[in-house]
Amino acid sequence: MIVKTNITIVIADDHPMILKGLHDELIESNYNVVGQGINGKQALELIITHNPTIALLDIDMPILNGFEVIKKAKNKNVDTKFIVLSFYKENDYILQAKTLEINGYLLKEDSFSEIENCIENVLEGQICFSKSFAASSLRIVSEELKKIDNLTSSEKTILKLIAQQITTQEIAEQLFISKRTVEKHRSNITIKLEISNDSYYALGTWAYLHKNAILEL
User: Which residue intervals define the domain Response regulatory in the entry (predicted)?
Assistant: First the structure.
């Protein structure tokens, strides 16, 4: 049985009203809120200092966004489980969350009972996504992630550079390989990602649209 007072929580959001409302709801429900941040820098410092059970983070925050906070915190080997709260429903954000292996992704339109349910599920080792996300979106993102995981380390490196709109010639010079080798990698990546349009620009467009998630690889 979960003892709420034993669950330490850090929350962060740059909207004071949302932050206060979330804080008050958690306190009223007997959770132990050990810190509040209004930007990503504060959130990261609180997480490293307190190593809370749960961190509830807005994605779109000043200085560091929620994803950047999570990545930096994980590099510090904290035991914290992360749940992001956002208005964003786009697939690219879901893909970023899955790439970072974030424990939960809720929308700010969700009720507090859904937040509480997510906390309980995450503490039981489950991955929790808002019920507001279409099942088809989650399935598409999972399929795309599997395709990306099938890439070799060299292909992932090149995909990151393509996502940053670096040309084939520049990639070759940067990685000290031939332009022909880069082109071969591009062809293999296109096939593995099942990009139907095999034109030179199709991979670049796909990579740019998924840039934020690709750079987390």
Answer: 8-123
